[in-house]
C-alpha cells in the first residue's frame, strides 16, 4: 500500500471538496485566498508530492493583513 498523500487526503483533513483542493494546488481562481493558503499549508505539512508546483515560492510571496477595530471609543 502506498503512503503517497493525495488530494483526497488533504480534502478530508480540511473538510473541503477535492475540487477545491485541485483548484488551490493548481493556482486557479475559484477558492478564497484564506482557503488556498490553508490547503497549501496542509499539503506542505502532509508532504504532498508537488510535481510542477513550487508551493514554497507561492507561500513566501503571500502577504497577510490583519485589521483590528478599536472598540474602546477613544476618538483621539
Q: Any low-confidence stretches, pLDDT <50, length ≥5?
A: none
Compute the average pLDDT: 81
Order of helices and strands: HHHH
- The geometry reads as elongated
Main sheet: strands, sense, barrel: none
Secondary structure: number of strands: 0
Assign a percent range to the helix content: 40-55%
Determine the N-to-C terminus distance: 65 Å
The amount of beta strand, in percent, is under 5%
* Count of DSSP H/I helices: 4
Protein structure class = mainly alpha
Using only CA atoms, what is the Rg? 16 Å
Short description:
This protein is an all-alpha fold. The chain has 4 helices and no strands. Helix 1 crosses helix 3.
Can you lay out the helices and strands and say which pair or pack?
Layout: H1 7-14, H2 18-25, H3 33-45, H4 55-60
Helix pairs in contact: 1-2, 1-3, 2-3
